[in-house]
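One chain given next:
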Amino acid sequence: MVQGVPVNLTGKVAVVYGAGTIGGAIAGAFAEAGAEVHLAARTEAALKAKAEELGVGYAVVDALDEQSVDRHAAAFERIDISVNVISDNDVQGTPIHEMSVDDYLSPVVTNVRSKFLTARAAARHMVRQGSGVILFFGGTSDGSVHRRWQLGGLVTAFDAVQAMCRQLAAELGPHGVRAVTLQTGGIPESIPAGFRDQVEPDIVGQTALGRAATLEDVGRAAVFVASDWGRTITGTQVNVTCGAVLN
């Protein structure tokens, strides 16, 4: 460790869209690292409970609604970190040739629209500040996943968001703003109980380390990337797949 320069987020204002397991893990890790954290989600009861559990701020925001996102962001004097981990609204388990177009496009539209809106709202603050980090979660996956699971439009959505991440990094970099994706191979703790027993062995079986990333791992990686220790990282994916993806 560099003397006197710990990995922390002291003095940073972070907005985390999505109050589920992954959003909660990242928000909690940010708060522990010293950031002023604000959770944003659509469902007030679950959002309030998670915010109170973590001791962070919260607001009801629909990340798919332009006015809702912009109105919420405008209330801040500054935003240093923006993370979007709302639900993908994906439909899985149906062969593509039997899917409706709406089911296929659901995760694509959800991801691209919500991440564009939240990234744009944050970028307006960050360009003015001359600094900031826009963080996504998902990333492009191991190509063999297509042979193991019927994922509908989910991977299409992740690929589209990664293209957005690269464009944001290129355009915002001159303003001191970074855009990064945490690349996941699947987080068993975030999988609904009814499916976890079926999916977890597959996730673990693809890894080089023989274990899957935990929610704690995700939170720690997010803190590192968002901190000044990650200041050289932008326009790319940070691999938290435990070696499921080797690149």
Observations:
- The radius of gyration is 17 Å.
- Strands lie at 13-17, 36-41, 57-60, 81-84, 132-138, 177-183, 236-239.
- The first strand starts at residue 13 and ends at 17.
